[in-house]
Amino acid sequence: MKLLIQGGRPLEGEVLVRGAKNSCFKLMIASLLGETPSVLSNVTKAGETKISFSIINQLGGEIKFIGEHSLRINPRGINKSVIPFGVGKESRASTLFVPPLLLRFGKAKVPWPGGDRIGNRPLDRHFKGMRAMGIKIKSDEKWLYFELENSRPRGCVYRFVKNTHTGTDTLLMLAAFAEGETVLENAAQEPEVDDLIEFLNKMGAKIKRVAPRKIVIKGVKKMRGSQHIVIPDRNEAVTFACAALGTRGAVSIFNIRPGDLTAFIDKVREAGGKVEIGVNEMRVSYTGNLKATKVETAPHPGFMTDWQSVWSALMTQARGKSVIIERVYPNRFQALEYLKKMGAKVRFFNPQVKNPEKYYEFNLDTDSPEFYHGAEIWGPSPLRGGTVDASDIRSGAALLLAALMSKEKTVITNAERICRGYENIDQRLIGLGGKILKVKA
């Protein structure tokens, strides 16, 4: 799929944020832990949701939309312990299916996770915790094999060496039906993790966050289905806000939780943008020349790594030298390479760090000499049009933003990768005044 964009038009109007993509597909999977159906509302139809929908269906579960953005999931028909290879390898969520499959069958076979090309995902953090809970793990080039040593996982005290969002989600689901008590230390504290905790507790789990990064879980034998409203997508809110500022427009963004966006809102104000906040909305307006900023990505409550790409695109229009430090992934500057081709002035570098093991959230053995973890961006730069490729969700969104800021025509190839994280992104931007045409490649 391609997106054809004619830029140079200020975005103005109102837009509604959908449910968090990074919550939706995990809650769908968690619903399989229940013995009765669950209903999820405020569900996004982004691509990652569709992949999990397909997997649940192929496992034998009954899943269907009941309304435009609500799902009913009945897990009773689940009759397979193997995630289909074709669809499973496309998803970053394949290992998250392990807990419900172990609950039902005592074993699971899943493809190695796929998803975006943003560097190696630290699965070792998941596996160490799973082994501590009595799960045997084997692997080959294509598959991962999991098996319970006993009838249920065993509770334990496990400390994550580094922050891991998906690892925390996985162990939470396992601990929910484990024998005894589990304590997770240095656990992720992203809002999407707390959304999962809230849903699991509605299903009958006993989970409590007793400190910002410490979670205590008392295992239960059975869980039931429940109803839950998915939290809003922080990444959508940030993308629309950056698009408003970058095109010198003003956009009101509804269905958000401003408290989840504090680190971003602070940077917008530092850059000279105007932010007006309501109970569940904010209005972001361009009021004059943007100023350069320095950003370091970090786990919540810091500046989210998923925001880095669109913020980098925005900083091409700020006056002075902006600095971006990527601390969460070893290789996440793909968008900047394309932004350079579009006329952005960028220099990559590696920060001088006294203790890299402590400073970076990624495993140092996944690093490589050709990867850079810092970038300097000089602006404002007039951006050229042309043809660019969306390598993943977030860098694709950055290129879309750059195309809207350019006064020329831009073609984005592999735009379906953007759609993995955003529902109908082209139509919603058109609703704000963007000139975009979606065509099949």
Structure commentary:
The chain is an alpha+beta fold and 441 residues long. The chain folds into two domains: 2-18 and 232-439, UDP-n-acetylglucosamine1-carboxyvinyl-transferase, Chain; 21-229, Alpha-beta prism (UDP-n-acetylglucosamine1-carboxyvinyl-transferase, Chain). It contains 15 helices and 23 strands. The strands form six sheets. Strands 21-22-1-23 form a four-stranded mixed sheet. The protein has a four-stranded mixed sheet with strand order 2-14-16-15, covered by helices on one side. The model is unreliable at 115-119 (pLDDT under 50).
Main pleated sheet: 4 strands, mixed
Question: Given the helix and strand composition, which structural class is it?
Answer: alpha+beta
Summarize the amount of helix as a percent range. 25-40%
Question: Mean of the pLDDT scores?
Answer: 94
Strand percentage: 15-25%
In CATH, the architecture of the largest domain is Alpha-beta prism
Count of β-strands: 23
CATH topology category name of the largest domain: UDP-n-acetylglucosamine1-carboxyvinyl-transferase, Chain
CATH class of the largest domain: Alpha Beta
Contiguous helical run count:
15
- What is the overall shape? globular
Poorly predicted runs are 115-119
- Strand order, largest beta sheet: 21-22-1-23
Q: Distance N terminus to C terminus?
A: 5 Å
